[in-house]
Amino acid sequence: MFVARSIAADHRDLIHDVSFDFHGRRMATCSSDQSVKVWDKSENGDWHCTASWKTHSGSVWRVTWAHPEFGQVLASCSFDRTAAVWEEIVGESNDKLRGQSHWVKRTTLVDSRTSVTDVKFAPKHMGLMLATCSADGVVRIYEAPDVMNLSQWSLQHEISCKLSCSCISWNPSSSRAHSPMIAVGSDDNSPNILAKVQIYEYNENTRKYAKAEALMTVTDPVHDIAFAPNLGRSFHILAVATKDVRIFTLKPLRKELTSSGGLTKFEIHIVAQFDNHNSQVWRVSWNITGTVLASSGDDGCVRLWKANYMDNWKCTGILKGNGSPVNGSSQQGIFNTSLGSANTSLQNSLNGSSASRYFFPPLDSPRAGSRWSSHAQLLPPPPLIEQSCDADTANLQYPHPRRRCVSRPLNLLPENEGV
Amino acid sequence: MDTVPSQVVPGADPSARQLCFAWGPAEVLVCETLFGRTGGSRSRAGAAARALTGSVAGTGEGAPSSSRVFVVRRDQDIYIQTLRKLFNESHGIFMGLQRCEEELAGKSRKAQLVQVSKNYRSVIRACMEDMHQAAVSTRDPALQGQYSTQVSILSAMELIWNLCEILFVEAAAAGPLLLRLLDWVRLHVCDVDSMVREVLSSESPSKHKLFWNVVDVFVLQGRMDEARHLLSKEASANPTSMNMYKILDDLMKKMPVPSLGNTQTLTELELKWQHWHEECQRYLQDGTFASNPHMESICKILLGDEDAILEKKELMTTWYHFLVTRLLYSHPTVKPLELRFYAQSSMDLFLGGESGPEPLDMILMAAFEFEMHQVIKECSIVLSNWWFVAHLTDLLDHCKLLQSHNLYFGSNMREFLLLEYASGLFSHHSLWQLGVDYFDHCPEYGRVYLELHIERIPLTTEQKALKVLRICEQRQMHEQVRSICKIMAMKALRNNRLGSALSWSIRAKDAAFATLISDRFLKDYCERGCFSDLDLIDNLGPSMLLSDRLTFLGKYREFHRLYGEKRFPEAARLLLTLMTAHIAPCTFWMTLLTDALPLLEQKEVIFSAEQTYELMRCLEDLTAGNPDKQKFQDDDVETTKVEMLRLALARNLARVIVKEGTVEGS
């Protein structure tokens, strides 16, 4: 991983959310300064702010894009108890010249009596729908029956979850075998043992959402939740951000085996659990193929998780703020050098090395001295390396980075991110 | 213990701040934030309360004035311009390999696979040479460093690949195996070449201080002819020790080497070798070379004396050179499966406990141990791109060498790596097209990956959209085809390009959208009295049937064309059908009737009596059946129109009765 670009967001207060559009050519940011900004990527890869406007009368928690089939549409939710839907109007020539675009509010969803904590558009095959959840424990599902008229949204469902809701995730599966499904997380932190993740499924017969499952093992506050893209699997994968990162699989059981008429029951397994963030985990999200999970936590890091072919989940990358200690402070002195755009492995390590065992003489021809230097090419440069540990080997000693491989048993089955 | 590559986000404030992030198709957005500290609600409330009271100035714990958003990419190599050649050309080789399925068996199949392997290597080499040229020609030290780093990575990849080719693809047997390994070492230990050149180009090579080093290099690499050639120069300069040279020269000439053909059996070779070995031994014990330490050491090397060879450590530079030299002079008929023992001991001897092995050493060692999975695993840890492991694994799989190590979702390692590589290609704005073919050759998950990736390709221009569309259509990816067309239609509509929007929604077979756009066309017509995008509407053909409204649009335009061509009877018939067959929406009937006016006023009678009655019925239906009756009565213009129509219809009826009566009568 490397930082390709850094953009001055210029919000006057804390940014709470960033969001890519479907194609990755636009992004939106929202902030406690009550505004949303939209950024567009130009041909040469630069990002320009093309719109910035006041959206709410309170902190804006989340901003999210609708699928481009529905046009250029954003939804935001706020502490001001509302969620709002915004549509971009193709600008007057004047605006276009200035590189600005114009967004109009199509609707304000005012049903919540408390802070609206999350807003998510439903998978596109369900039409233009969105779900909100709020601190008073209600999930609301709205639909725009006419996609050309975004000012009309009807409240289709109200699901009472009984616990303060912090996050929602739609199941993205478009398979006919799967009914529409939404997972809800709660950050209720009163001492109780109630399940903080509930899963609601749409019942074709009653035309209502009903609770299909609750993850009884998750009793700590949940801050984020994310279904993985389905890839045609029969089962679902759900990531949960709580005091650690957890990944669950939900295998639908055959319906005739279940008692509650029409509702699917699931066989739930936890397939991974990581406490590397040391404390609370705040965000989890999958890449587009659902093969990499990213999580962000109190340690100030974004960690990437990936399963190998043994279904073994491992951390395969870390992003962190400049110089923040990760596994104890002892490393700071060594590792906090910031390299502008560096890759994580071979590439930046030629410093002072000779190319002695390669085809071409080194350009600054130091004599082929030690074999250390001649091997350096295959090592990541020290400033970028960081010892990180699996849950089971946490906080062991840190060998010299150049010797890392010494400690790797030879005949282990390949378990790295590649294999 | 495992290591994880990490990346510092420069400028991000490390102090007790968290990062929020978002995935994109190719990049990750990262941005500093502060999530609630105690279950969220309290600090959220705090931040929001500040926001509500309007005190959003840059003070307080959560108010950075310099908040930044970072765009983070995962596959750096994909963006390196000079590696494009590698990606492009290896794609061709990969596709060739997928095509040449097992028509050939046995030897020719193997030869074919070795050739493929060599092709891959020559692409790596070509790329390396380009990179080297780039490094030499640039003045920018940073860029130069970058290029030379790439050169060394590429050469390491070629080194590993070459060894895998010998051991796995070609699976050289005892005898030829050693010759291959010698070639491998000669090819990859090149820093001595400059020394050789220097000595050979000097006026009197034999006087050069590095003369014996060069001879040793030749001997260590088994380059006997070159060594003998050099020695003959020295000999001619030293007539006194002529005899000694002759003996050494003779020994070197007679040294039995494995042959590539089947001209001799291993036993024959071993026998000859044993003989020769004894002869060398004899001369050494005789003290024939005692007067010249250089020649004595060469003789010891010929005898495979480990200490003598190890003394030349500096000239070999690597343990695997040592290994091959050692094999050459003590175990020339080494069998593939014995390699691991010699390799391990050579590495231990060479490193002598001074230093541990490094990743490249581990990879080569794993290859010598025939641990293919280990090679691939180590490579994917160490190399920053998936190119190498994906292509090598695919080749090894075609050699039928990988027992399928099933992933939990049933895909094998080859597919796993190809999926990763192709996904990386998809994060590049033009290389993604190569990725399509790689996904095509992943039987298990290739298609669903392609579906997920291709719909994220930014549809910046119509051409690009058509390109993406073609790829989807060729693969019967109906949902993606529909979605792309829908996105394009929406985009065109937003920009008021109705024609484009209509043709995209026809492609998407999106009836609702086609109806909507047809309405827009009709509305525009009513306002402006003419149609835009005539070409499109005139050539709708059967796609007209997609939606009723679109059918009407097409037919209505046809009416106008007939009218323009003065084919009045046909135009009149069509106009009437549009109403009587209920193709036209009721809201449009008034317009249609108004269009009938000029036909009614023509000199010639066009509408038959029957047709006129029908028209009259339509008009009355419209005025009577319309719930908005009010509208007609209040609106003067509308009332006048209705009156005019009635008048025209009545006059037409009168004329047609006369005419029809006359015709019948005559």
TrEMBL record, chain A:
The keyword Cell division applies. Component of the Nup107-160 subcomplex of the nuclear pore complex (NPC). The Nup107-160 subcomplex is required for the assembly of a functional NPC. The Nup107-160 subcomplex is also required for normal kinetochore microtubule attachment, mitotic progression and chromosome segregation. This subunit plays a role in recruitment of the Nup107-160 subcomplex to the kinetochore. Keywords: Cell cycle, Cell division, Centromere, Chromosome partition, Kinetochore, Lysosome, Mitosis, mRNA transport, Nuclear pore complex, Nucleus, Protein transport, Repeat, Translocation, Transport, WD repeat. One of its GO terms (cellular component) is lysosomal membrane. InterPro entries: Sec13/Seh1_fam, WD40/YVTN_repeat-like_dom_sf, WD40_PAC1, WD40_repeat_dom_sf, WD40_rpt. GO terms for molecular function: structural molecule activity. One of its GO terms (biological process) is chromosome segregation. The lineage of its organism: Eukaryota, Metazoa, Chordata, Craniata, Vertebrata. This is SEH1 protein. Belongs to the WD repeat SEC13 family.
Automatic annotation (TrEMBL), chain B:
The gene is Nup85. This is Nuclear pore complex protein Nup85. Belongs to the nucleoporin Nup85 family. One of its GO terms (molecular function) is structural constituent of nuclear pore. One of its GO terms (biological process) is positive regulation of DNA-templated transcription. Component of the nuclear pore complex (NPC). It is found in: Nucleus, Nuclear pore complex. Keywords: Membrane, mRNA transport, Nuclear pore complex, Nucleus, Protein transport, Translocation, Transport. The keyword ATP-binding does not apply. It comes from Falcunculus frontatus. InterPro entries: Nucleoporin_Nup85 (IPR011502). GO terms for cellular component: nuclear membrane; nuclear pore outer ring. Its main location: nucleus. It comes from the Eukaryota. Pfam families: Nucleopor_Nup85. Functions as a component of the nuclear pore complex (NPC).
